[in-house]
Design brief:
Layout (H helix, E strand, L loop, with lengths): L40 E5 L3 E6 L5 E5 L16 E7 L2 E7 L14 E10 L2 E9 L8 E8 L15 H15 L2
Antiparallel strand pairs: 1-2, 2-3, 4-5, 5-6, 6-7, 7-8
Length: 179
Amino acid sequence: MTFNRPQRGNTNPASCLDLTVDDRCRSYGAPYLNAGYNSYWQIIQSKNHLVIVQEMMHDARVIPLTEKPHINEKIKLWHGDSRGYFDGDTLVVETTNFNNKSTFGHNRSRINIERFTRVGETQLLYSLTADQPDTYHAPYTREFILDLTPDAIYEYACHEGNYSMTNILRGAREQERLP
């Protein structure tokens, strides 16, 4: 009996560089919005910056809260180039200049607009409007509540000792030897 199961990504990589950045434990993209496993965010604000630390992959976004312009549009970054400002009681983060290397998150966007609005002592309303013209005909918006938790953010040990990468490449070489 043969099962045809779709597989994502490169199933016969010549090197680790042929694999996606999430397969290589580099990044899932930002913002990472999947719920459940390793989905905590820690948000730290200083006078001039906001830092959002995502538990998944330890991704940290350092966002200036100044009127500094975005970097040159020719410069592309994994998490894009973010700028934050307040619109009344709402923190708005505008992100551009994505390099499209992450396969998760909203890194295929032309622009992301995130809004953080306190709706209670322990809750923020989070809103993301993403403009992904290569995927969708029009921008779309997602909203959900971020709840405060006393729980710790844990180390995300993707490919501990990186043995998984070795095994992925070993499997690809074995697959090449099969008739």
